[in-house]
Design brief:
Distance between the termini: 59 Å
CATH architecture of the largest domain: 3-Layer(aba) Sandwich
CATH superfamily of the largest domain: Vaccinia Virus protein VP39
Structural class: alpha/beta
Number of helices: 9
Strand content: 25-35%
Oligomer: single chain
Shape: elongated
Number of strands: 14
Length: 340
């Protein structure tokens, strides 16, 4: 059977698109549609699920149509069936349990009929609440067209299978992967996560290249327990030393070439009033533990406080860049710093 070349829509968080674009380029021609969407052409749906900077991937069918009811025509349904069959063929062990339609006017009679038709083709019931075969219907980019998008995986790509503990405040994994790109962490680096939480940054790094040394420190024993469980579940080669304690006073051997921190920011953890001092203390401690020419990444929501700390108490760190992210009403910013 001749493989189908899929037109794929890749959803990304704002701030992750350039990193996701570089990653997706390995799978086929790709272009940026917007700050939160890429368009990829690829025959290999199985490889798509390895994308680590993408929130979700959907195979897209664009058809000439004036209104959604025309998507029920036999020719369109046959093309939808072909997409579903190719999805089954490339991932025979992947099972969907229900179809969830996401569309403007999803409760209209035409949309309900379309949901039922797609569910029948997929061999699953319509499940508006928990359906894991997500079908989106929207107007196409060209006038007089509509798109049907079928998510290629039961869970979003950003939902890491190794995250077996729901630890509050954990950084989004696609943001973590992008931060590591921007820090340019390599196999020869010695990496310290000063506020590691449940381990997202360092475990994401193991999916790229295991560093020469990796250390994660957190005040919470529960966080470190979660990080250890997550590392085991990830089944990636590479050693990470997880330490319970205060990174400001813990007896750590210095020489780190890459340091990062996502400190508390006052909603789930920490207090806004004390975070300015915490940021200053983290910069000073990072300077003590850094190798010459080291890079430091500070991911924080405390933008004005961080800027003030850098101006007044930068501890020798030089700002080389800032990178903005957007996720569900939050606007964290990565401050990229270098020593010297």
């Amino acid at each position: 059977m001749t493989p189908i070349t899929h037109d794929l829509v890749l959803e990304v968080l704002e701030g992750c698109a350039p990193s996701a674009l570089a990653e997706a380029r390995e799978l086929g021609p790709v272009r940026t549609v917007s700050a939160t969407e890429l368009a990829l052409r690829s025959e290999d749906l199985d490889a798509v699920r390895s994308l680590r900077r993408v929130v979700a991937a959907s195979t897209a069918l664009t058809v000439p149509a004036r209104r959604p009811r025309e998507l029920l025509e036999t020719s369109v349904q046959q093309r939808c069936a072909a997409l579903l069959e190719d999805l089954r063929r490339q991932r025979p062990r992947q099972v969907f349990h229900g179809l969830r339609l996401e569309a403007a006017g999803a409760d209209t009679p035409d949309m309900r009929r379309l949901a039922a038709a797609l569910a029948e083709l997929a061999g699953v019931p319509v499940d508006d609440a928990e359906g894991d075969l997500v079908a989106r219907v929207r107007r196409g980019a060209s006038p007089g067209t509509w798109q049907v998008l079928l998510r290629t995986t039961p869970r979003p790509l950003s939902t890491r299978a190794w995250r077996t503990v729901d630890y509050p405040g954990a950084v989004n994994a696609t943001i973590a992967a992008t931060v590591l790109d921007l820090l340019d962490v390599r196999a020869e680096d010695e990496v310290l996560d000063m506020t590691c939480g449940s381990g997202t940054f360092l475990i994401e790094q193991l999916h790229r290249a295991a560093p020469a040394r990796a250390v994660g420190v957190d005040l919470s024993a529960d966080a470190i327990d979660a990080a250890r469980l997550h590392q085991r579940a990830a089944r990636r080669r590479g050693r990470i030393d997880w330490e319970v304690g205060d990174v400001l006073t813990a007896p750590l051997e210095g020489g780190f070439t890459r340091i990062l921190t996502n400190p508390p920011w006052g909603t789930l953890h920490g207090e806004h009033e004390s975070n300015e001092q915490l940021l200053a203390d983290l910069l000073e401690r990072a300077a003590q533990l850094a190798a010459p020419g080291a890079r430091l990444g500070v991911l924080t929501h405390e933008i004005s406080r961080m800027q003030r700390v850098l101006e007044q108490r930068g501890a020798g760190w030089r700002r080389v860049g800032e990178h903005r992210f957007f996720q569900k009403g939050h606007h964290p910013r990565l401050f990229l710093l270098e020593q010297g």
